[in-house]
Design a protein that fits this description.
2 domains, 254 residues, mainly alpha, 4% strand, two-stranded antiparallel ribbon
């Protein structure tokens, strides 16, 4: 396919039947869409590394990036296509090449696919020209972890019998799919992306029904009113207030 794209960029001679003339047809590759693992592979990016973003150089182990206060975090630069190509070429020619900081870069598998062919396409940046993928980036990312922390917390577990009945009593008119209270309470660990999306739409009503004093305190606390997403909570170490704060903010952004 890459050969056809390169040929199209150079121009292909065609025929215009209306004008009865030869024409030159040109085109290029503007964007590529895939899920996060596939897009990372096409960008020679190791998405399970300390640099999980294929578009920028965010390092999850940097002290400033692990802060719970978003205002203390640093702004990181975008990845540079030319720098990536230089590192990949040096690495592919010499496996003993000393790469002091891989920045999440990896060589592909196979003798002929070590460097993604997308780097050869003029005007296309594999780091920045692959579309945002909502499923893994959001639904199976922050929303998943915060939902799990919320449903597994003592804050909610004491209301499990009532929560089942409450979710079953909701009107699902206008929804193409629904979730039952029994599934939310007992089987939320097997949720898929669409389930988290559905739960995000009923979560505010759960908070108002069962946690209204805490929700009101969150809404009217001047120190928290403008708080942004504070990070993915750990089920064991996160406080109930942190879980509730993150749930409200994450649902608002969904």
């Amino acid at each position: 396919m890459m050969n056809e794209i390169k040929q199209l960029q150079r121009g292909i001679i065609g025929y215009d039947a209306n004008n009865k003339n030869s024409v030159i047809i040109t085109g290029s590759l503007l964007m590529v869409k895939g899920d996060n693992p596939a897009s990372s592979t096409l960008a020679n990016h190791l998405w399970k590394s300390d640099f999980p973003c294929r578009a920028c150089l965010f390092n999850k182990k940097e002290p400033t990036n692990t802060s719970t206060n978003i205002q203390n975090r640093t702004v990181v630069p975008f990845r540079n296509k030319a720098c990536t190509i230089e590192l990949l070429n040096a690495w592919s020619k010499d496996y003993q090449f000393n790469l002091p900081n891989t920045q999440g870069i990896k060589l592909g598998t196979g003798l002929t696919c070590q460097i993604s062919p997308l780097y050869e396409v003029l005007g296309f940046d594999p780091h920045l020209d692959q579309l945002f993928e909502c499923l893994h980036t959001w639904f199976l990312g922050p929303l998943k972890h915060i939902t799990q922390a919320f449903l597994n917390s003592k804050l909610v577990k004491k209301y499990n019998p009532e929560l089942k009945l409450f979710i079953n009593s909701l009107s699902w008119d206008g929804f193409s799919e629904t979730i039952t209270g029994r599934r939310v309470v007992n089987w939320h660990g097997s949720f898929v992306g669409k389930d988290y999306k559905l739960f995000a739409q009923v979560a505010p009503f759960i908070c108002l029904q069962f946690l209204q004093p805490r929700t009101d305190a969150w809404l009217y606390d001047n120190q928290r009113r403008n708080r942004e997403f504070t990070g993915i909570p750990n089920n064991d170490g996160a406080t109930e207030e942190t879980i509730l704060t993150n749930l409200v903010v994450t649902v608002r952004q969904t």
